[in-house]
Amino acid sequence: MKIFIGAENAISPLGNTAEKNFRSLVDGVSGIRLFNGVGFNKEDVYLSKTDFVVENKFQTLIKNCLDHVQSKIDKQIFLSEKTILIFSTTKGDIDKHLVDAIGISANAIQKEYKLYHHPLTVSNACTSGVQAVNLAADLINANLYDNAIIVGCDVISNFVLYGFQSLFAISDEPCAPFDAKRKGLTLGEACAALVISKNKPVFHDHPVEYVSGSSANDANHISGPSKTGEGLFRSVKKTLASGKIDVREIDFISAHGTATIYNDEMESIAFDRLTMDQIPLNSFKGYLGHTLGAAGVLETVMCMQTLKNNLLIKNLGFDTAGTSKEVNVVKENKNSEVNVILKTASGFGGANASLLIRRI
Q: What pLDDT does residue 334 have?
């Protein structure tokens, strides 16, 4: 069964549609800027933060994003018994609803859009977005649903910011994935959504194909990645095998690329083991920051735009290679025929996930 993926949207500091966000990437614009006195000890911190000033930012972002998605598909899809909505988030609306950070918003969204089913939630650290897309495809392949709407959203909260500061993971300048001088990650907030369906006609615009996806856990450490890249290596191997895709068919890798010392190093080792060291690769986080549970959905949306535009986006912040194994980091925007893209994600607790999408 072919599975189609389309109707994508994204809201970030760079724009309120997928197309506007991608155009900002093309123009080299970053959403990262300095916010004064917001850190735990009132430090100035670089963040990629939306300009929504509302009481319930998390829920507002989701609604605005879904409204745009709804305009790109048959509107009856949202109401169908054969449609499931899947949230991807790490902390949901934790500043506003500490006890039920996700459920209250899920209930409100179900009521707002008259969804037949209560939304599912995938919250598995920073692999949540990719795993949500993979779960949607699995549910469709199992004939439990015909369509799935995936929405990834995370907002910057004191809980999250202070937590990453306590791990000494926050950079004191905009993040620089895979660069030798990288100092750590930059947090971002965003909302992104897409639709997966077994029925191509539900999309108003031409979709792409979801090929395959999988996950693997290396159980290495609660916050540190495997030094051998074992979890990511196994996930990608499974994804390639289930999709019947050869390494030589991959035109581009959208890496996790957090710009922490250990994550970028782990990815370089995994890609070297997979003989993917010469495939063009980037991280979108130099533009958008690390959007946690939204990252996998947001960056998949940017990958879909990459397919549609045949344009590889440079890895912002990269100057000098900073990993022990060579990776082919995209240094300048490049027009190139792109047919198959590998998207990867890694997260706390040893989580790793990957998926493949293809032009049709």
A: 97
Instruction: Please give the structure tokens belonging to residue 25.
Output: 């990437």
Cβ–Cβ under 8 Å, residues 294 and 127:
no
Nearest 5°: the CA angle 213, 273, 244 is 35
pLDDT at 209 (0 to 100): 98
End-to-end CA distance of the chain, in Å? Answer: 14
pTM exceeds 0.90 for this model = yes
Write out the two tokens for 75.
Answer: 């509107």
Token couple for 45: 């911190």
Nearest to 169 by CA among 220, 132, 126: 126
Mean pLDDT by 10-residue block, N- to C-terminus, for the chain (360 residues)? 97 98 98 97 96 86 97 95 98 87 94 97 97 98 98 95 95 98 98 98 97 94 89 98 98 98 97 98 98 98 98 98 97 97 96 97
The pLDDT of residue 220: 84
Alpha carbons 360 and 308: distance in angstroms, whole number: 10
Specify the pLDDT at position 124.
96
Q: What is the rounded radius of gyration, in angstroms, for the C-alpha atoms of the chain?
A: 19
Among all chains, which residue has been given the structure tokens 């990511």?
Answer: 232
Burial per residue of 200-210, b for 16 or more beta-carbon CB atoms within 10 angstroms, e otherwise: eebbeeebbbb
